[in-house]
Amino acid sequence: TMPVPPAVTFSFQIIRKALTEEKRVSTKTSAVDLVTETDHLVENLIISELRKRFPSHRFIAEEATASGAKCVLTPSPTWIIDPIDGTCNFVHRFPTVAVSIGFAVHQELEFGVIYHCTEERLYTGQRGRGAFCNGQQLRVSRETDLSKALVLTEIGPKRDPATLRLFLSNMERLLHAKAHGVRVIGSSTRCSPGPLAPRASGPADAYYQFGLHCWDLAAATVIIREAGGIVMDTSGGPLDLMSCRVVAAGTREMAMLIAQALQTIDYGRDDEN
Ligand SMILES: O=P([O-])([O-])O[C@@H]1[C@@H](O)[C@H](O)[C@@H](O)[C@H](O)[C@@H]1O
Ligand SMILES: [Mg+2]
Ligand SMILES: [Mg+2]
């Protein structure tokens, strides 16, 4: 597997340092969808480093897309980048933030890297070659019983009354199904390794979300699948990277139990906006 280029490692240090500093904050699709100068700086640093090494490759990146770049995955080798996942946490100096870099060829996810900036944990996964955290092989939770599960989710950027009712109703349904707990930690990519941990079963058993994006999903999908987990659509069908929705779990049984409980929240598609 390719070592992490120094410029990318440097971007991790930039985030850790900026976490405790004053920030210039802007909003994107809603008043709670935040972006800072560090998101842009880190995204440009990662892209310029990768472009130097792979000039013919394509890029899908969160802040470039927010500035109008098309979000279309072609068969070309493509890097799918979230420079800071958990920007709202970052703005509030809440330490759950990550950098996520996925890579696809012929529209197939080949490998992913997620770096937890404050814990300095590097999650990696390569199709057919396993998933690791700082070099330790990862295993998913084998839990199949929802009444024994800890479930992670995220709120997403839409906060209109109808969306909030659906979000809270989905959480209520899982609690009625006696899930041990539901947690919102503010970072999709941090949730995704939720069902994972070195050797033992992961700190969480499942994750679902409406309102995330392909750059939240790409790396995490490879890592979870390579650790033996399932990543699927909220309908129970195959994952659609551009659909802004996901269910992930250590077992298919758990993923299906979650999918069957959920009411859909429509966020459109990354490749339509
Ligand atoms: O914007 P960002 O911090 O990279 O990513 C965030 C996701 O990690 C989070 O789960 C979601 O609820 C937010 O709306 C936002 O998309
Ligand atoms: Mg981001
Ligand atoms: Mg994100």
TrEMBL record:
GO MF annotation, one: metal ion binding
Superkingdom, taxonomy of origin: Eukaryota
Pfam families linked: Inositol_P
Designated name of the protein: Inositol-1-monophosphatase
Signal peptide: none
Cofactor dependency: Mg(2+)
Organism in which the protein naturally occurs: Spermophilus dauricus
The entry's keywords: Hydrolase, Magnesium, Metal-binding
Coiled coil: none
Catalytic activity: a myo-inositol phosphate + H2O = myo-inositol + phosphate
Pathway entry: Polyol metabolism; myo-inositol biosynthesis; myo-inositol from D-glucose 6-phosphate: step 2/2
Family: Belongs to the inositol monophosphatase superfamily.
